[in-house]
User: What shape does this take?
Amino acid sequence: QVQLVESGGGLVQAGGSLRLSCAASGRTTSSYAMGWFLQAPGKEREFVAGISWSGLYTYTYYADSVKGRFTISRANAKNTVYLQMNSLKPEDTAVYYCAAAPGSLIRRPRRDDYDYWGQGTQVTVSS
Assistant: This one.
């Protein structure tokens, strides 16, 4: 079991930056593949970024819409995963969810890979 708590959302102008944090308790983040998803009003929850580890290798995946703007990373000592979001656009406005999947994912993640979810944090980008 792992519990996930997101933080760092808020209101930002277009072109600005935010860093989301996902604090995990119960198990270390290195035991899980971690991901970020977003859900805009009236839409399906969709993949944003994922990070996973296998041996010495770290694997990261991004949705095409955020490549070059968002970066997923981990702080082992804090058992925390981050999503650095730069050059934000109004279409990035959504609730962002952190998710965990047991083991490693060495392919592009899917929503149903993840067993554990946080409560979400709202990100609003004004034009």
Remarks:
- The CA atoms of residues 25 and 72 lie 19 Å apart.
